[in-house]
Amino acid sequence: MTVVELDDGRTVVPDNRWDLVGDAPTTTPLVSVVIPHYNQPHQLALVLEALTAQTHPRDRLEVVVADDGSTCPPDVSAWTSRLDITVVTQEDKGFRAAAARNLGAAASSGSVLCFLDADTVPTPDYIRRAVRLPATAPDALVVGRRKHADLSRVAPDSVVEWLSEQRRLHPSHDCEPGWLVDAYDRTSDLLTPGWDGYKYLISAVMSCSRDLFDDVGGFDPSFIRYGGEDWELANRAFMMGAVFAHEPDALAWHDGPDWAERPVPERISEKNAEALALAPLITDPAARTAGLRYSIPDIVVLVSTDGHTAASLIHTIAGALRGVDAAVWLVGETADALLLRLAVHDSRIRTGTPDTSTLSRCRFVVEVTGPVVFSDDSLARLTAEVAPGECGRVTVDFDGSPSASVTVASSRARHRVRRWAARTDLGADELLGRLFGVRRVRHSEVEIVVGVHEPALSW
Description:
Residues 198-239 form the Galactosyltransferase C-terminal domain. This is Glycosyl transferase. GO terms for molecular function: transferase activity. This protein is of the alpha/beta class. It has 2 domains: 4-287, Spore Coat Polysaccharide Biosynthesis Protein SpsA, Chain A (Alpha-Beta Complex), CATH 3.90.550; 299-450, Spore Coat Polysaccharide Biosynthesis Protein SpsA, Chain A (Alpha-Beta Complex), CATH 3.90.550.10. The protein contains 15 helices and 19 strands. Helix 1 links the parallel strand 3 and strand 4 (61-67). 45% of the residues are buried.
């Protein structure tokens, strides 16, 4: 696996290897700071004042305040002479931070987007540190470092001085949520994120390229209450080929305690509401412990019906669905007729092709041709081969037999290759090999066999 250079000088890194990116972008990017806001005039004043003191060049910085229908629209007149600042507003229809961030991003023009909450005050180096990776490696989704303090008595005209006084705390993990500190330490600042790294991407201190944000589709506006929208975005971005990174030198101060430390009434019911909203959209097995099935499966299985009889097809489908969170799409001219003949009533069996929502959120895509018969754990073994840090695609070797084929690819590999194939001089297969690697396994290693054309179904 190797780094691939794009035609504009930026870099596509293999797997999640953000550590292979150089120290600084070749040009200074235009950065758009997007700030969702709702009735927070004092907190917003602190953030805006802190943005005037950034080490990132002021002429390469724009600020968009995305107001979520505040009672009184935010007054930013005190900063218009020092910041390129715009206010956009949406109607108050409840908590819609996800939609507000999308609104702010749409009104901005920077090549790098830096999302900061209106209660999160950046230190002077924050922007410069937070955008280094996205400016050079456009797949990077970067989370900064967040400390907590009571800023209610800090005046806007003294916030820069207050930030300077806190520099003594920067080397330590004082005032930081322990669960985040532990996670970044365990994953080497998300260099090895595993499948659950999305849980450590906090939208209050998140940065990415506009290329990535637009390709992923932004935040999901269906989230209309506090919490969950950053996990959903981060997970979807990872499935679509994002590179996760934690930048500890991009430090901001959040006004107030971490959620886990707040005396919030009905905490369990609030977290349950968040979990119920996320489980249909995040296929991580940890999100789906009840054993129920959702419209979006973890594994998309595309089964060609060419050459199948109804009897051979039912064996292939049954094996693909057994014991895993999967759904099968039957593809081919005979798909509808064969499904009708099977007469099954199983929502996991469909015809046609998966929709965009499914392909942007599932972890794996399996392509099957021929009368393949899977064992109980064949797909579990194959999908383990394309986990983060492993490879991007695995092909099953049937000893040269042309009557069957099985390939398994991670969604993140498929999407990253799709996003950049036209921007390199490499073919899609070569690009996938360079960025993620490919493997072959013998069918006997994963207990897959080629069945007969007309197996016996009688009992």
